[in-house]
Amino acid sequence: MQITTLNKSMSFSHETQPFTHHNHSLNQPNNNLRSEIGIWKEGRTSWLREDVWRFAPLYRRAGGIKLLTAYHPKLHLHLTIIERDITNRCGYHRQVFIRNEEANSQQIVLVLHQKPFLGNTKRAMSFYAPESKALVHYSHPHYTTTFVKGMKASAVEYAVGGIHSVWQEDNGHTIVRPLCAESHESVMAVKLNLSSHEETRVDQWMDVSRSMVGSETFINEFLQ
């Protein structure tokens, strides 16, 4: 992936938080979700908030576009994350480019953990919509919808509920749980098998609507 042209006209910042802790593109932080990124391999998930990751400065440019690059020296994985606001919607489109810098192939899992900003689970419900392969989180009066598509995903697993109850750290799988009436949280796990020096891309969309109709409209528009 060539990123030099994307860096032009972007402002310089030392922040990495918008990708690891919150998303400024969401206008209602008290009701919406943040999506944390991690890489699982051989019994352990390494989250981007951990000190082992080496970050280049976060770049921003007009139009709500942010770009972040990170490298894991032990896993020999290079990540480039591009996030852009969705025009006329309260949401974003995130592209995660993962490159295997190791001499051997690697089997990994890209883990996306959705959780509320302030931990408020009052009137909360989350569920998996199997036909559209999307996760919907309800917290009155908002419906937050998210889904992923991978260029080379061997499988994508979905589960709703607290990460400690649905994510199996030892084997890198989720526990099947399509409905949770007491939590905003959810996990999407994208299984990837990367050859040496191979790069792939995983796309994530997230949107906030005030009705299920708005959520369905978003799914139909972008999940094509």
TrEMBL record:
A molecular-function term among this protein's GO annotations: hydrolase activity
Keywords: Hydrolase
The protein's name in its UniProt record: Glycoside hydrolase related protein
Source organism: Alkalihalophilus pseudofirmus (strain ATCC BAA-2126 / JCM 17055 / OF4)
Lineage summary: Bacteria, Bacillati, Bacillota, Bacilli, Bacillales
